[in-house]
Amino acid sequence: DAKQHHGHRYARYRGLANVQMQCFLAAMAQNIKKIALVVWAFLSYLWRQFCLFEAWVKQSEKITACSVI
Fold this sequence. Notes:
Residues 2-35 form the Transposase DDE domain. Pfam families: DDE_Tnp_1_6. InterPro entries: Tnp_DDE_dom (IPR025668). This is Transposase DDE domain-containing protein. It comes from Gallibacterium salpingitidis. The protein is mostly helical. The protein is built from two helices and no strands. It has one domain (2-68). It has helices spanning 2-5, 16-68. 83% of the residues lie in helices and 0% in strands.
């Protein structure tokens, strides 16, 4: 992934410190993308659970209303 999407095919700068900085920044970008994916997946899961709970509450309200009448 780093080689294809984050510029590790060629070094942009000369010198050990500059190449290390490029590697550090590319690794940081990869980690931020992974964190964003995990957070998005977790929030999507919470949203699905909320929607299921809301549907369950509406269904149980209908059942309760029917049993009272």
